[in-house]
Amino acid sequence: MSKTADPVRILGIVGSPRKGNTDLLVREALKSAEAVGNVETELMPIAGLKIHPCVACFRCFDEKTGTRACPSFEDDMEKVYPKLARSDGIIIASPVYFGGITGQLKTLLDRTEPFVRYARTGYGGGLSNKVGGAIAVGYNRNGGQETSIQMIHSYFLVHDMIVVGSGPAETPGCYYGGGAVTHPKRSKVLDAVAGDELGIRSAKGLGEKVARVALMIKKSNREK
Ligand SMILES: Cc1cc2nc3c(=O)[nH]c(=O)nc-3n(C[C@H](O)[C@H](O)[C@H](O)COP(=O)(O)O)c2cc1C
């Protein structure tokens, strides 16, 4: 999307198997991040990516095998690892599936074991101090948006990332990030969430907050 000199980079991961409501919310968050200025964004839908589940071989804790971060599988994670590594902020979004994130998203997150601090892949500790924000959308108003967001926050904390919510302005009660609702009768409507005005604002607030904190961190690193 937009480019300026020495920008912060924000990656938006869409954890839905379809291009629908989650995708719409991440786009809103990224637009709002770009509006802060000096921010470059990339949208990464996981739909269509072929990702094998982690098998706990722990070979990524040994020396790097060849050029791959995950010595066991050569799949679409090869495209994901460098995107994660070069980002300053990461927004992870999921539809609520049974009160939590989608299986597809969990599979991707588990395969980031080569980034944990014990890994010897070249990526070890590589997500530390990046800024993380979460978004969840369900068809029920209290369908598990916050429990899904909490799962994503746990993921960020395990990677020693800095977790932010939607910020204080214009988003009353959206403490945890982007939380939105469609409707059970509109489960096939791919943009049903557009009618959830507060949900859209919470995603926008999150995008802005991730951008502002990522810029602060980049500035303080430059001054060191
Ligand atoms: C397998 C499955 C489980 C779901 N479980 C929940 C749930 O627990 N709570 C909820 O509010 N919505 C649930 N939903 C609805 C989705 O979260 C909702 O349709 C969401 O908008 C989908 O996002 P998308 O349009 O980006 O795919 C479920 C949908 C599916 C397919």
What descriptive keywords fit this protein?
six-stranded parallel beta sheet; 224 residues; alpha/beta; binds flavin mononucleotide; single chain; 16% strand; 5 helices; Rossmann fold
CATH top level is Alpha Beta
Envelope shape? globular
Helix content: 25-40%
Largest sheet: 6 strands, parallel
CATH homolog superfamily: Flavodoxin domain
Amino- and carboxy-terminal Cα gap: 29 Å
- Known CATH architecture: 3-Layer(aba) Sandwich
The percentage of residues in β strands lies in: 15-25%
Poorly predicted regions are none
Each distinct ligand = flavin mononucleotide
Give me the secondary-structure category.
Answer: alpha/beta
Number of β-strand runs: 6
Mean pLDDT: 94
Our Rg estimate from Cα atoms comes to 17 Å
H-E string: EHEHEHEHEEH
Number of helices: 5
Please summarize what this structure is.
With 224 residues, the chain is of the alpha/beta class. The chain has helices at 21-36, 77-86, 103-110, 145-158, 197-223, and strands at residues 8-14, 39-45, 89-95, 131-138, 162-163, 178-181. Flavin mononucleotide (FMN) binds next to helix 1 and strand 4.
Q: Can you tell me about this structure?
A:
The protein has one domain (8-223): Flavodoxin domain (Rossmann fold, 3-Layer(aba) Sandwich), CATH 3.40.50. Helix 1 packs across helix 5. With 224 residues, it is an alpha/beta fold. Helix 1 (21-36) links the parallel strand 1 and strand 2 (39-45). The chain is globular, with a radius of gyration of 17 Å. 33% of the residues lie in helices and 16% in strands. Strands 1, 2, 3, 4, 5 and 6 form a six-stranded parallel sheet that branches. It binds flavin mononucleotide. Residues 16, 18, 20-22, 95-99, 137-140, 143-144, 182, 187, 190 line the site of flavin mononucleotide (FMN).
